Amino acid sequence: MPRGDKSSYTNRQKRKAEHIEEGYEKRGVSRREAERRAWATVNKEEGGGKKSGSGRSKSARSAAARKGAATRRRKAAGSSRKGTGRKRARR
Question: What angle do the packed helices 11-26 and 31-46 form, to 10 degrees?
Answer without folding.
Answer: 140
